[in-house]
Amino acid sequence: MVPEFVPGIIIMVLVTNLCFHGIFYVYQQPSFVDQFWGTLLATAIGIIIGCYITIFDRYNFIWIAMRLGETLADYWSRIAVMFMIIHALLFTSNSFTIWEDRIVAFLLSTFGMLTLYEFVFLPKRQSTTALLTATISEKEGTTSGVNPSTANSNYLPLTRFARLLGGYHSAVLIIFTRLASMITICREEQGEYCIPTFNNQNNSSWWVLGLCFLMIFILPACITGYYNLTSSYQAAAPIWINVFLKGILGLNFVYWSLTSLENNSAVIAIPFLRDVTIFKFTLARIIAGFSLIASNVGWLMGPLCIKLNIHNTDVKSHEATILGYTNIYGSEFFLLVINVLMSILLFNKPLAQLSYFLMCNQLLSILEIIDLLKLKENIIGPIALGLLSYQHFFTTGHQATIPSVQWDIGFMLSEKITFPFTQIAIILNTFGPHILVSLSVALLTLWSQPPDVLKPQTLLGRIVSNCGILLTYNTILCLSSFIWVTHFRRHLMVWKIFCPRFIFASLSLIVTQLVVTFGTIAFASGRLIKHINDIFWK
């Protein structure tokens, strides 16, 4: 598709720039549009027209409309569209906008309740969407490379064990969503109806630090439990989960314990606290260097999460089993998510680290739910992850306001503003949930995906599709906030509510676009699929 899109886009960019500059030359150029922004506008319009020309040259409008209708005819697709519309319509009122954190948590809990209902009360319901395309015949299979027996198994009713497992994951999603919503930072407009829990006093309290200490052991154990469901706790997995992650969590605990002692230095008189600043800078730089650089290099060069298990059936014959084969893509990809999680945890305060602990479990439970309900090609997966990212943006101590930016985090690696360390720290602190979700959206396709079912091209295509849905979701939110901030431009609260929300929507869309394009698709997914393809698709 790239050779078809690129020429059309280049030609239309040149044509639109020529038309715009010709019009500006003949008629007077508007005062609010200078030469640079006029060129950018013409280029953007040219890219859009070039894409549409290529699409409608291959597919007609009626076919696209019918495909859209077929997609929205599915039960879970309609739920996803409803979530997206509700979220986008929040910006029509300042009262809805200031309570976005509660509404997003409610929508995510609703998704958990619907999946719980699906597992408990609809045991004989068949797949509501096609994991491996719509109608699969025994003789022909599919063009994706799916063997018929595997394909048809995706249309059988869920087993009792699968229903119990799905109900457990739905309960985890609901409970952890409720627990995460207890971490709050309040807006001025919420008044007495909001009680803030994310404050310096709680972040320096002994009970929060105690929970962070327990997280050193509980978070790796939880991730190990999800890996053991598919026997994927092999080779690189124990090193990443039980050594790297646990070690980084321990160093984070030491760093924030020292910070707590510094904050309480007036109450606790300890002589060495005056010299602890240099030690904290050194510790933070070690953690950042390992999690941002060394761990990712190790992921590129490390082994897969599989193990060859040989059984001696008798003296002359051996039976071999590949442990972790059914989740070979997902288990390896999630190690990269752990790398990003380790780097984000450093630049977040203790209560925010507890929020990320809950987010990690919610994320893995959503992946298991999507796999059990055969919704890997449904738009509900990316929408649910999008809601998860917005919930934890609020529960990590942020609001869509300028004062809620945690500027002090920018000075964790240096005493003064130093490019790029200050900027990296603030970006990872503010947009950490969006970065994690933008990277993890590929797992909707790769989780519990054995290599002998779908061809590499099909896998990558479905990853791109899920990434596109996540980007569409964020684009709709950004467009909605732009429309309503323009509509309410004379509103008294435009600069306190509507405009900051539009700025946040724009920045979150940019961050999501960059991570999805260069991280998820270009770097991680392509490299991993090619590596496994070289081994299993000879």
UniProtKB/TrEMBL annotation:
Transmembrane stretches, start-end: 6-27, 36-55, 75-91, 103-122, 206-227, 239-258, 278-301, 322-347, 424-447, 459-486, 498-524
Alphabetical UniProt keywords: Membrane, Transmembrane, Transmembrane helix
Keyword Transmembrane in annotation: yes
Highest taxon, organism lineage: Eukaryota
Protein name: Uncharacterized protein
GO cellular component, one term: endoplasmic reticulum membrane
Species of origin: Saccharomyces cerevisiae (strain YJM789)
GO molecular function terms noted in the UniProt entry: mannose-ethanolamine phosphotransferase activity
GO biological process assignments: GPI anchor biosynthetic process
InterPro entries, per the entry: PIGO/GPI13
